[in-house]
Every structure is written in C-alpha cells, then in structure tokens.
Amino acid sequence: MHFQWYPGHMTKAKRMMQEDIKLIDLVIELVDARIPLSSRNPDIDELGKNKARLILLNKSDLSSDKGNDEWKKYFEAKGFFVVKVNSRNGNGIKNVNSVIQEACKEKIERDRKRGILNRPVRAMVVGIPNVGKSTFINTFAGKACTKTGNRPGVTKGKQWIRLNKNVELLDTPGILWPKFEDQTVGLRLALIGSIKDEILNVEELAIELIKFLKVRYQGLLEERYSIAEVENEVEALQNIAENRQCKVRGNELDLVKASNLLIDDFRSGRLGRITLEFPEE
To answer: Would you give the DSSP letter of residue 124?
Structure first.
C-alpha cells in the first residue's frame, strides 16, 4: 500500500505559516503520543528554528505510560519543552501555561528590560491533520474558539485567539509534507486517522495493525475479541469478523466491516493504550 495525501490547501497553509512566523515567540507543536516521531512534520523544525519550542504529546491517554515517558525524555534531550496532555478531558492542560512562561522566559525578560510590560507571548499552534489542535485550543481557552472534528482537514485558515493577558495563540491548519520518504510513516499516519480514510485500503491497514500487535502487544487481540491465537494475520481478521458477526448476505464474512471495527477500536482506545513506535527504533 502506498500512502500519500497532500491536497492543495496545505501548500497555501505552509506559505501562510512562513509569513506569520516573524510575529511568533513560541511554536507549540502537537504530536500524537501513539506516534510522536511519525506525526511530526519535518518542515516544522525549519519553520521554527530560533524560536522557543514546546511539544505537546497529545492523546497521551491512548498511548502507553512507558511510551509517553520515553518520548518525553527523548524530546527534552533535544532541547524541547514537553508536556503530556489529553485535550479531550483536559489532563495536563493546566501545566501548559507555566511551561509557556518558562519557555519564553528570556523573551519576557528582554521585554521587561526595554520597558515593555504585559505584552502577551505569541504562540503558533502547529501539527499534522487530526492531531487535536483545535480541541487543545478550545480546552486550553476554556471555550469553543475553533471548529473541531475527528477527521483531517477541519481547520482551513488561520485564526488568532487571545487566551488571557499572557498568551495569544495563532491556530493553523494541519499540514502534512509532500512526500513520505518512509512508507512506515504513511502507514502509522493512516492508522491514527491523519490521512483521509476514503483513499485507503482498509483491509490492508487492518492486517498491518494485526501484524504489529502480534509482535508488540501479544495476546491483546485474542483477549479483546475472544479469538484463538493464530499465526496468519488474514486468519486473525477472519476470526474477528466471525466473533463480531461481520457478515454479508449468504453468511459470508465481511472483512471490510471487521477491518473498520478493528481500526476504530484502536483509534478510540477500546483496544487499550497502544504506542506504535518507540525512540529506540
């Protein structure tokens, strides 16, 4: 399966971000805690060089504690400020404000020496599609400032949001990059829902997920779906279809329906807390 999705509005969004970066003190980058490296747009490092940087490990409730801790250490060692958050229920959000002040301490001090008081920190919120930027902003602000949706491409334009007297946020659309050098990255992005489902082969995607789970999370599928342990991934998917009554007319197994069910169970956390990549890899 070949993964690629780079609609025209992303080129426009990237240009817009390049123009706005000169107004910015801090880049807040949201990544999906299940795939922190694969969900980082490599263009962001170039865009945000010479700026204070904060990485939010979002959806940290869906990834393993071990994975979250390892990735936090990994990014901190590279000079980023890092906070684990769950934007949906607000976990970790109240730590963000103090970390923003800490990350921009030098800038605030410079302003103070120049006699500029109370100028808010201006932060650009960036990330790939469907990583939860709008949900984060709404939770952080304590009110609905932006449109949200659990599909990629909901935010189309930029939007300034005044949070309080200390912080202003610039919301930006989710952008991918034109070409995935490594198709494993594309696969992981497809699994978390950052690539439009309509252009994917859902059965192949489900089989790749089964393959990974059998190695890193042994016994999880058998326990969740009450199925026998088998070597073959296609057979495992058939067993899930059988167990969950995913059938079409004539009592044939509906593997597309079973695949959608498995991927949905993974994305929603019903399968458990799963990290798809670790720093040592």
So the answer is: E
Q: Could you count the other beta carbons within 10 Å of the beta carbon of residue 50? A: 5
What token pair was written down for 83? 């906070």
Q: Is the Cβ–Cβ distance between 67 and 275 less than 8 Å?
A: yes
b/e per residue, 3-12, with b = 16+ CB within 10 A? bebeeeebee
Q: What is the CA radius of gyration of the chain?
A: 20
Q: DSSP character for 20?
A: H
Tens-place pLDDT, residues 84-100: 999 999 999 999 999 99
Query: Which residues have CB under 8 Å from 228's CB, separation 6+?
Result: 222, 239
Please report where in the chains the tokens 């016994």 appear, as a residue. 219
What secondary structure letter does DSSP report for 12? H
* Position 221, amino acid: L
Question: What mean pLDDT is predicted for residues 127-135?
Answer: 89
**Residues 258, 244: contact at Cβ < 8 Å?**
yes
> Smallest Cα–Cα separation from 206: which of 256, 275, 269?
256
Region 160-175: mean pLDDT is: 86
User: Which has the closest alpha carbon to 173: 143, 153, 189?
Assistant: 153
Alpha-carbon separation of residue 281 from 35, 86, 210, 277, 278 (angstroms): 12, 25, 19, 7, 6
